Amino acid sequence: MRLARRLRAEREPDGLALGRVSVLDRLERDGPATASALAAAERITPQSMARIVRYLAGAGLIERDQDPSDHRAAILRITEEGRELALCDRRQRDAWLSRAMAAHLTEVERDVLLLAARLMDRLAAA
């Protein structure tokens, strides 16, 4: 949790709210999805997701396409502008993490951390 807070602190102070960036990251990483699927994946209410989607669509960071299997629903996909914003946010955090690891960890510690990250990814996917 402390590391997550520290990484959040490395974000631009006037950047997108973390929940909005999280949705962009998910769409960039996992591809198009419905708002209800995003809400479930982000573990937030559909109403909260609707507000995020309205904002992101209004800002031109995501686009809505009609779901071919359910004409009442929309498929959301990230725009190129949204992708660039998400990648820039991620690059900032990654750059800080790389500098901190190089300055404060030995090569063995970095290898252990890499292994631990793989294990945590497996656990998160379980």
UniProtKB/TrEMBL annotation:
InterPro entries for the chain: HTH-type_Bedaq_tolerance (IPR052526), HTH_MarR-typ (IPR000835), WH-like_DNA-bd_sf (IPR036388), WH_DNA-bd_sf (IPR036390)
Full protein name: MarR family transcriptional regulator
HTH marR-type domain mapped to chain residues: 1-122
GO molecular function: DNA-binding transcription factor activity
SMART domains: HTH_MARR
Organism: Peterkaempfera bronchialis
One family name in Pfam for this protein: MarR
